[in-house]
Specification:
The complex is a heterotetramer, with 2 copies of chain A (381 residues) and 2 copies of chain B (345 residues). Chain A is an alpha+beta fold and 381 residues long. Chain A has 11 helices and 8 strands. Chain A is globular and about 70 Å long. In chain B, helix 4 (59-72) packs antiparallel against helix 5. Chain B contains 10 helices and 10 strands. Classes of the chains: A alpha+beta (381), B alpha+beta (345). Chains in contact: A-B, A-C, A-D, B-C, B-D, C-D. Chains A, D: Its cofactor is FAD.
Chain lengths: 381, 345, 345, 381
């Protein structure tokens, strides 16, 4: 372990400038940056990005993508997240679903889904969590029963972000009843069309007052065989591979950039030493974590599989994000005012309410540390 | 390249920095037996141009040496000889004297050819062949070379027993002087802080190894203690902080480029991150190893006493964070992200 | 005695502050249905002398009411009516108007019988029958009683949806005025901070109950999640911080004595400790309860949104720590321990 | 749980003033306060204290003690620790051994040991830990074999503080070979005379350079039957009861008082806001934890058994002490100089090196949190 820092090539730097210029031109001056899971759901913005080739960048050109490296995608994603751009519409489709089709999908699925994803026209949700399951993703009770030409799916999924807006969800289902043995056996991923009549989506209101996550009840939804993703019975292996994919990207340390920038704007003019120290603390760690995350991306491009490193970086990143909120709040020394006059006021309120969820996405702190601890102690024996 | 340097130095030090050597060095002030092979191998002046009598190489390569030296807890002034005094002399156009060198901060004046003033907490002053002194001369800043036997030196140590001595110059005639570049003091401070960050990164990494090994071997209630969730959690924290320190120090070092100096922002970030990591790593390692960890016989204390010392030398976490914060604030919100996302070179 | 008060209020609120009532209160600005029985029971003016129309009792008893109200997340101005506005009026020799009261800080001037100025983030202003205003009059500080319908009130909330409104007075003629005691502003600030500390203590305690219950019932990987060491660790931290907050708030309250005001040092310590505890408790509880904890249907968010709000109202951890630090520093090292070990009365 | 604050009576306050006056008179002006385990080993000081009745205060008068309440003992101990007075000689004898004799000892043992302890003439060490045992105190390998008129003890104990200076140690020994079942069965406490020829004491040097903890090798030491403490086979129950006794006293939050006072002296004159906040943070928590600890003492006097509360207070206290060192170090912003010119310099160096041990004494953080967690979750079901 322990990566070396990786420089960006001139090409990669040029790409960054290009994205930056595009965003400066496109986003309004008083734009309120989105935090956390990548900003608001804005189909128009997603399509505009797609026209530039910045959606589904790592999809090969033969399927309508840019066939870009992990690092080039990193550069674009980083700028979009840094600006808090409204990328929620294509976020899951591009980060999770496209790679899954490439690894596990049929040629037909690739040809149908990937060009649509790259065009920003096909949006995905995740269908993993179930009520009372928590981080125990294997305790799946949603069942898919084989029927003529496909499967009939019934069950309930929760924490399904933007299911009321997106087109599809890859749902983890039990395709063979659970036996005595391996709890991970008998699971499969089925692509459910969220516009199907048997799909009932209702919002789960959160403490921040938002209603973008949903409960999705599947009431005998028919999924044809050609919409099974990967192998029947291999759902668990596929899902864990996907989770590893989403671990260490810039979304693990940039949720707070909007807040940080607003702090500088509102409380960072000629700051006293308390505020300066807070600004410096956040900056130093952000600068470092960014290099760690970039190093993981580069290593993926070099064909390595830095799963443990990615877990560490994710844990470092999300812990950092939560600390930043506390550090800046303390340094500001103000009452939190959700309707306050400054961008910092409003973003601080949003961050305080949302920060608890940042360590839940993509494996809780405990799960991540478990993975890392196992690798560390295995290395030693 | 940097990895090769690290490995070469690690190999060279592996059997030489033994517990006995460390105990002896605490008594004697340093270890000639550790110094000689490092010096003979040219590792003590990496990062100092060959033209000035150094071994050449970049700041990043010098930091690779320091990471390995930090991991080994080598009780010799390798940072001081190369990146600190060595480059200070070279920048003033002077050639390096042979042997261990050091430098320090304080207020020293050059008048009528003699130096007067005090340098505080100078590392390895007595053990050094020469001290490079940055002084105020009649025509501006100068770099002067002083023989430590011409100075009054009062003993002092850090928590690790490494010499940190008070050097009083009462009208000492230097061997040589040369005009110093305008930014000599600032660049020295940056390289000093970066050097400690690199040493911290090396030591933190070694703490991880020592702690993982010990908690893996030690059995309690019938299983290795590393399997207990609380201990495993400490191991992960140590690993995370070691990665942070190493990435920060390496990024700042690589950012200096082939012949350049590290950027202020990079050094500030690296020093702040490494300084904080030092404390967290030491605390977690002692928590994981319990009573054994605090005995003098066990390998951990040698490292943690250095982490606790190095993190505050040439400015600690708060000092560098504050400095970085003022710099970032002065750039304003628009420049914040462009500044922080400037890549390493 | 204090325990009896806490229990009585807890019993009274138990079935009244339901999720539906809380949702309605966020829409309507408060809950008359929760207010009425509290008011009828005399609990809204505990700590205000009977001579002034209050229910009598000590600051400690008033804080006992607030602990219970905090635990129940009661959406009514019970702190504001009694300890804050009520005692402010009583100290100026005024009799309490009936109904909910509030007060706020800001710069207000009384000239020619009319009040001009702005009060910022006044709790429950619109819902109050009267606002007690501390103003600069021609002959010094005065306490004035204002009907909120005479003021311009701009909406505003804290994170918990509790009203925190801007009150503009543009030449409002108060119903009554009376000269304020010299230390009225300082004592008001102390009681305000202490009130929030007591509310935090109550809410933190309730968070512990909710979190212990949920993690005890919820089964994952075949056993209650409270048995997982990481979750158990969160529970212990919550318990520790809840104990800290409660002991700090209660000590400061008891220290006020039967008729007195809480001491500056005690309030500073209580506010600093409770403010920090609020954040730690909320974070640990959300970490322990995972996704369920952040849903609006679950009991936790009602409490944590209050903890996140209350900890900064009338000064947060850093503000009070700084103030306390200056006071202790002024006393010097000799007085440090005697000051801190001064017992509660 | 959750205690009410308890006021001190006029009598208790008067006692405090008396101790304070005594210390002001007795300790030199440039006195360097002892940290951590209660200051230096000074038989003279211990005897002087004993003459005032302040050693073994809770020993009943019939055995030569003061028969004082837990709170009165708390008051005296608190002042001694606040001053960093040199109380190591009688510390263990008075805190652990005297209560153990009272609870488990024979009448003969009480009459022999207790008056000597109260006179400050009989000093004890603890003999619990063994090499490679860590917090697993039950893994005892020191064996006591029955012989004519007593036991013959062989084995090795470690972390035995001041065994080279003290008179006795209560050694936990295995008196019945370990069977398959309960690891805690078959253990007993034997009082070993440390001046016995078979006792070999050698120092364990620690990273702070001190040599006050020892390895004690017992090489066939004879212990007569009348020196068995309590019942043969009940050693485990007795030891855990003792541990509970030592949990929540003032030694859990006063290790740092000397450092704190020195900070005020050296860095606290007209402090900037960073230093003021540090001073206030430490003060606020110290003030609160002291009330918690005092509440436990009062509750013991009222006949309650607040074992869980005591564990929480100990955990809070030792965590606090470690944080204080970091808080004050950070606020001072200096290089640590063990031979520096100020008392703060020297105490800071000592604290940084010693702080890691503060969470090890009397049950590690993990053990304490385990006790507390069990009680918390039991309460809920």
């Amino acid at each position: 372990m322990i990566f070396d820092p990786t420089p960006l090539s001139a090409d990669e730097e040029a790409l960054r400038e290009e994205v930056r210029a595009f965003l400066a031109e496109t986003l309004p001056d008083d734009f309120r940056p989105g935090l956390g899971l990548g900003g608001r759901h804005d189909p128009e913005f997603t399509r505009t990005l797609a026209k530039r080739g910045w959606v589904g960048m790592s999809i090969p050109t033969e399927y309508g993508g840019a066939g870009a490296s992990t690092v080039r995608r990193f550069v674009v994603i980083e700028e979009l997240l840094a600006a808090g751009a409204p990328i929620a519409a294509h976020w899951i489709a591009e980060r999770q679903s496209a790679p899954a089709f490439l690894r596990f999908g049929t040629e037909e699925q690739r040809q149908w889904f990937l060009p649509r994803i790259a065009a920003g026209e096909c949006w995905f949700s995740l269908g993993m969590s179930e009520p009372d399951a928590g981080s125990d993703l294997a305790s799946v009770r949603t069942t898919a029963t084989p029927v003529e030409g496909g499967w009939r799916v019934s069950g309930t999924k929760v924490w399904t972000t933007n299911a009321h807006l997106n087109h599809f969800a890859a749902m983890l289902c039990r395709t063979t009843p659970q036996g005595e043995g391996d709890r991970h056996a008998g699971l499969s991923q089925l692509i459910v069309d969220l516009s199907d009549d048997g799909v009932h989506v209702s919002p789960i209101p959160l403490i921040d007052g938002e209603e973008h996550v949903n409960e999705v009840v599947l009431d005998g939804v028919f999924v044809p065989d050609e919409r099974v993703l990967g192998e029947v019975g291999q759902g668990w292996a596929q899902v864990t591979a996907e989770l590893a994919h989403e671990r260490s990207g810039p979304d693990r340390y940039l949720s707070i950039l909007g807040l940080y920038r607003a702090f500088l704007d509102v409380h960072g003019r000629d700051p006293d030493d308390v505020r300066a120290a807070a600004i410096g603390r956040v900056g130093a760690r952000l600068w470092t974590i960014r290099q760690l995350s970039l190093a993981v991306a580069r290593s993926l491009d070099q064909g390595e599989a830095p799963a443990v490193e990615a877990s560490l970086v994710k844990d470092i990143g999300t812990t950092f994000e939560q600390q930043v909120v506390e550090t800046l709040r303390d340094a500001a020394g103000i009452e939190i005012d959700p309707g306050g006059p400054t961008m910092f006021d409003r973003l601080l309120a949003e961050c305080v309410l949302n920060a608890p969820t940042w360590t839940l996405r993509g494996g809780t702190t405990e799960v991540l540390r478990g993975i890392a601890a196992k690798a560390l102690t295995r290395g030693a024996r | 390249m940097n990895a090769d340097v690290r490995e070469a130095v690690a190999d060279l030090l592996a059997d030489r920095v033994t517990p006995e050597v460390l105990e002896a060095a605490e008594r004697d002030g340093w270890s000639a037996g550790v110094w000689e092979p490092l010096h003979a191998g040219g590792f003590t002046t990496v990062g100092v141009p060959e033209a000035a009598g150094g071994a050449g190489g970049s700041v990043a390569e010098a930091c690779a040496v320091l990471e390995a030296a930090g991991a080994a807890a080598a009780p010799v002034p390798v940072a001081e000889t190369g990146l600190l005094a060595g480059r200070l002399l070279a920048a003033a156009g002077l050639t390096l004297p042979d042997g261990p060198l050091t430098t320090g901060t304080g207020s020293v004046t050059l008048a009528d050819g003699a130096l007067t003033g005090r340098l505080a907490r100078v590392p390895w002053a007595s053990a050094s062949a020469r001290i490079a002194v940055l002084a105020d001369g009649p025509d501006g800043s100068v770099v002067a070379v002083v023989d430590p036997s011409d100075a009054r030196i009062a003993a002092g140590h850090n928590l690790a027993g490494e010499p940190r001595e008070t050097v009083d110059l009462d009208g000492v005639v230097p061997e040589t002087t040369a005009p110093a570049p305008a930014d000599a003091a600032d660049l020295l401070a940056r390289r000093s802080a970066l050097a400690r960050a690199a040493q911290i990164a090396g030591a933190a990494r070694r703490v991880l190894e020592v702690t993982v090994a010990y908690t893996g071997e030690r059995v309690q209630f019938g299983r290795p203690v590393s399997r207990f969730p609380a201990v495993a959690d400490h191991l992960v924290r140590i690993a995370e902080q070691a990665e942070m320190a190493a990435m920060a120090a390496r990024s700042a070092a690589v950012g200096a480029g082939p012949d350049g100096e590290p950027a202020e922002l990079d050094v500030a970030a690296a020093a702040a991150v490494a300084s904080e990591a030092a404390g967290l790593v030491a605390a977690a390692a002692h928590q994981a190893t319990g009573a054994m960890g605090v005995t003098r016989e066990f390998a951990l204390g040698v490292l943690t006493r250095r982490l606790w010392s190095w993190r505050d030398e040439w400015g600690g976490e708060r000092a560098w964070s504050t400095r970085l914060g003022h710099t970032l604030a002065a750039g304003g919100p628009e420049q914040l992200w462009p500044t922080l996302s400037r890549g390493v070179r």
